[in-house]
Design brief:
By secondary structure, this protein is α/β, with parallel strands linked by helices. It is built from 4 helices and 15 strands. Helix content is 21%, strand content 20%. The chain starts with 10 loop residues before the first strand and ends in a 9-residue tail after the last strand.
Amino acid sequence: KKDGKPKAEGKTAGKGGDAKPAGKQDGKAAAPSEKKGDATTKKNGTASHKFMGVAWKDGLVRGTNVTNLSLALYRLIKSLDAPSIAVYPCAPHAPWLIELFPVLDFEIVNFELQCLDFTEADTLRSRELLASAATGFRTIPADPDASSSLDSSLDHSLVNVDVFPAVDLLFVWEAFSAFPNHRAVWAFFRSITRAGVARVAFENNPGTVNEAKVGSMLKALNVKRAPFYFNTPEKALDALSDDYPMYRELLVYNTSLLRDGLS
């Protein structure tokens, strides 16, 4: 007792003197405490800041909101507790990935980052920019004899089962626009499923109808409509681009649940 009034146990005073359960404020759950090793803990005696996305100087990169996308990818990887990540393609996103992956490398034990690119030149660029991003970094060489636009053959190395690594998460952004047709898209998803990729997070255009043209580059891809009709994803993250009505979302799938008969 204090001043003749009983002290409320396990509660804190709320607005107007009402008692509220500890850990809640105004009906909202308090933010969960950070685990040891998160960016909010101390490293070498210096407190780090909580990661809130890459603050890109121009805001957008080819219509992508880099801050929102990097934050979405960070939260996804942390929620899955996924230590092995592959990015496809890697080089176009390396300038902002270099700000994200060192954070994950610090927070996740035995973190591994693998980069896949369309061309040998892009592979070298990824290695140059991202080699210091993670202790377990490596690149997977592209086929130097293959076309950078994937239009020479459906047997291109990057839709070959022998190329994709068996990682916890494959992140795919701005890849399908380089594919020649829907057959190449089917080959890609079959390949990653057979390769043992556990989950895939990829760019989708929910506001578009898939074009059935053969021999031209795909402008957009919507796996929720014909001819794909993928199952409901584990997660669907939006607010990642400003290119309405062709806006993009990030869909997350367990590869075994993409679509019946895909393996």
